[in-house]
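Observation: inputs received (chain + S-adenosylmethionine).
Thought: call the complex predictor directly.
Action: predict_structure
Action Input:
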Amino acid sequence: MWMLLSIFFAFLLWVIWKYWAVIIGAGYDPTPMGTVRRMLELAGVGENDVVYDLGCGDGRIVLTAAREFGARAVGIEADPVRFLIAYLRILFSDKRDRMTIKFGNFMNVPLGDATCITLFLFRRGNEMLTPKFEKELAPGTRIVSFVWRIQSWRPVKMDALQEIYLYVVPKPE
Ligand SMILES: C[S@@+](CC[C@H](N)C(=O)[O-])C[C@H]1O[C@@H](n2cnc3c(N)ncnc32)[C@H](O)[C@@H]1O
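Observation:
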């Protein structure tokens, strides 16, 4: 009986862990490294940038932005296991003074100091974030999204082959 209950609760925990992130934005699926570099190139990321990866997974975009593009980079992750992996990867990396990993829901994190945002979320994640972007981001901030478009915005550049879309927050009229 106890054995069956333990298996049931372990399964329940696994289901919650697996699907919770889907409900609040997107499940885990890492961006291929070639695409990470292309996203940062397309956005023209450099050493004066502050790059936020919303839902940073294992931290690969944060690490690449800081180590290969010289930017300051911030990752936000709500899944405790991925957060820990990203945190440890950054802790043992060079340039760690240019990287930060925050645990929590990106909807609750102010984004005002970002100059570039990277996304690989589902359509719903992008839809949830659009009003936050319109409210918090400074004109000129770039948003680069892999696979999923921002439905109500028009991309200024895209890489159709790699499914990357670049947006720039417009100046207010
Ligand atoms: C498709 S993965 C992309 C991971 C990483 N950005 C990459 O490109 O390799 C999406 C990530 O977003 C995280 N996530 C989803 N919704 C979130 C939210 N509301 N706040 C913080 N992280 C979230 C998930 O846990 C998952 O790790």
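Thought: report the result.
Final Answer: The mean pLDDT is 93. The pocket of S-adenosylmethionine is lined by residues 21, 24-26, 28-31, 53, 55-57, 60-61, 76-79, 82, 105-107, 120-121, 125 (CB under 6 Å).
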